[in-house]
Amino acid sequence: MEYKEFLNQITYSLKAAILDSNISLNELSKRTGIKKSRLILLLNGKDEIYINDIFSISRVLGLITNFDLNDNHIISEEEKTYWDFRNYEKLINDLKLKSENCDSKDKEYYLSKIKIFQKNDKSYNMLRFFLGNRIEHLMSSVELSISELSDYLNVTAYYLVGVLNGEENYPCSLLFKIISILGNSCSVTFENNNEIHLLEYKA
């Protein structure tokens, strides 16, 4: 698959998801924080699509983004927890309550979880982390090191570590290059998130 084909597949999937939701571009722009003019460019393959762009649109539409890296990945219950943004306030309040009624060791754990949810709520770092984890597993399967992959990509190893750890919002073109180097294919689809109704965070 060429990158243009990969990009067309992403934009087609995004357009279909937006049409199914009946949301206007004005409303989508308002709720994602992505300017309408840029949304139009993104949906027509005229601007670079970043991972966070996809996550932002998925969040508004109540969808989970499924990156198919040909690695037989099944979204875990833990990962689904981080996709259910509608339930974040409830999750964080539950964790705060737990932190107030436990010993110091557990308190530190619950407070760290609160920080993780709050960070993901703003920057999608945990969702990027889960994707990075899958990439690392693929790297391991072909025995490719971070330094070797960074050389192939012409980026610093420091930057690549940030990508794999979920700390960097990177373009989909980089994801395509990584997966191509690892000898796998990549596609993006969306699945409904409406069935996720978590009542509390379970450690």
UniProtKB/TrEMBL annotation:
Organism taxonomic ancestry: Bacteria, Pseudomonadati, Spirochaetota, Spirochaetia, Spirochaetales
GO MF annotation list: DNA binding
InterPro entries, sorted: Cro/C1-type_HTH, Lambda_DNA-bd_dom_sf
Name of the protein this chain belongs to: Helix-turn-helix transcriptional regulator
Annotated source species: Bullifex porci
Domain HTH cro/C1-type: 14-67
